[in-house]
Amino acid sequence: MATQEELQERGKAAVMDFDEDAVVEVAEECISAGLDPVALIQEGFTAGMNEIGDQFEQGTLFLPHVIAASEAMSAGVEVLTPELEKLSTKSENKGTIAIGTIEGDIHTIGKDIVATMLKIAGFNVINLGRDVPIADYVNAVKENKPDILGSSALMTTTMVLQTQVEEQLKEAGLRDGVKTMVGGAPVTQDWANKIGADIYAENAADAVTKCKAAME
Q1: Which residues form the B12-binding domain (predicted)?
Q2: Facing residues of 199 across strands?
Q3: Same structural domain for residues 18 and 106?
């Protein structure tokens, strides 16, 4: 029987090989072995997706490769989702979070994993989707009054637009009423500090921990 670490390495390799069947096989093996689905997603599938993103940025891979890897990862996450939902705590609503992938960025899987984990943790999550215009983030705050607004970016070229979310919330007079969270492969704590975001989430588990802390 494979160890957690071995499954994570296989999961990472399968995503990077765009091999949907292999990703599903790893996910199913994780369930049957009673191993940690969250760790498989973060240290296996997401790690592979991050490397694909790096290669895309470097020009060694192209958009069809990114989409193929994302679809392979999505297939694995779909298999694991029922296991993730079993981890859900049926507690009181911890708060509302609106989250989306920033304008110009079509990558959705990492953001969707964060959204799933936040739901499991007891948050009401409004998933804004991908390629979300800056104005839609502002409108989401106006209409839904979330406690936290999250934006995800997988590329440095789209990451810069997270600055505009901060600026347009201020212009609309809404910034003081909501906490902002940023994440994605190229995003760092230094970047979050620079643009004035309240929360930097390195991964889904980190997002849950920091969102819980922000609501205390």
Answers
A1: 94-216
A2: 181
A3: no
